[in-house]
Amino acid sequence: MSVMVTGGAGYLGGQLVLELLDAGEKVVVIDNLSTGFDWAVPDDAELIVGDAGDRLLLNHVMRSRSVDAVLHLAGAHSAPDMVADPTAYYLDHTIKAREIIAAAVANGVRHIVFPSSLAVYGAPENVPVKETDATSPTDPYGAYKLAVEHMLDEASLAWGLGHVTLRLGHVAGADPAGRSGEATIGATHLVKIVLQAALGRRDHIAVFGTGYDTPDGTGIRDYIHVKDAASAHLSALRHLRAGGASLRLNCSTGEGHSVLEVIDVVQRLAGRVLDVRARAPRPDDIPVLVAAVSRIRAHLDWQPQYSLLDTMLGHALAFERRLPAKAA
Length: 328
Ligand SMILES: NC(=O)c1ccc[n+]([C@@H]2O[C@H](COP(=O)([O-])OP(=O)(O)OC[C@H]3O[C@@H](n4cnc5c(N)ncnc54)[C@H](O)[C@@H]3O)[C@@H](O)[C@H]2O)c1
Description:
- By secondary structure, the chain is an alpha/beta fold.
- It has helices at 11-22, 55-64, 79-84, 86-106, 140-159, 190-198, 226-241, 259-270, 294-299, 309-322; strands at residues 2-6, 27-31, 46-49, 67-72, 111-117, 162-168, 170-172, 205-208, 220-225, 247-251, 256-258, 276-279, 288-289.
- The chain has 2 domains: 2-171 and 225-251, NAD(P)-binding Rossmann-like Domain (Rossmann fold), CATH 3.40.50.720; 190-221 and 254-327, UDP-galactose 4-epimerase, domain 1.
- It is built from 10 helices and 13 strands.
- It has a 7-stranded parallel beta sheet, sandwiched between helices. Strands 7, 9, 11 and 13 form a 4-stranded mixed beta sheet that branches. Strands 8-12 form a two-stranded parallel ribbon.
- It is globular, with a radius of gyration of 19 Å.
- The structure holds nicotinamide-adenine-dinucleotide (NAD).
């Protein structure tokens, strides 16, 4: 019996493969290496370089490797690129997820774990936002994720496919043992930019929106350590294998941190004052997005262990230092 991880050569996928191997699972990765790296997949896992939307490949691997569960992470994670080229990302995130679901059903795979995002809520009316609150994504990324959530629900109703959807906060940090971390070329999210500035690979940090109704005026997000996010996937898999019901869960810490807080912690850890420049808010930017997390604590045997801001950013900085400047 094996677990299939699509996107297992990526940032979160690489950490997840490590967690699965540490737990004694047999792992097969399907990744097209569009943003991932073959070195991110440990030798103890099988890496098949291919596309998560390739139905023939999926059929073959699911049958020949006796796959009982798919952890479907394939899909690049760059919101600005998605706004610029929405149809390409719609294909990668949503249409290929349809192939995964259909192949799983056709080949007797009983469980799917899917990383969705707090982006499905858009700008929530209530903070912390609960799973039962309205979803109203303000960017294509949230919309793609929501479409897959709906497909999974419908597949559960039609064919009894068990699934857990984890609505993740912003994933940050790196493997505490230094085995993996975020190496994505051209990553555009805050933590990566601040780390690059701290290591002299970027001359300044632009902060979009400094007049929000938050304590320091900058946007607030809920961050989760990549190892905690990965272990939540493992807990979700165990839940499904134990016969647990399909679930949709926020997966983060329920603690919000502002842009300036992130910058301050990295400045302290790196011992360097960074050039921070205020910019106008971007259209559709959300001031505060923090998750209610009581549901995941009630349903899964999981709690975050590494998700203090200092710990996350410390691990991320240590990993970033070791990345060659060309890959940063
Ligand atoms: N990083 C976050 O903060 C975050 C938050 C919420 C959800 N997620 C989701 O988690 C998943 C992984 O994100 P990540 O941050 O590790 O991104 P990543 O870009 O590091 O990893 C994505 C992986 O998928 C592979 N891939 C892309 N398209 C593929 C395809 N068609 N077939 C096979 N492989 C393909 C890439 O090569 C890469 O290895 C994504 O679905 C992302 O939307 C991430």
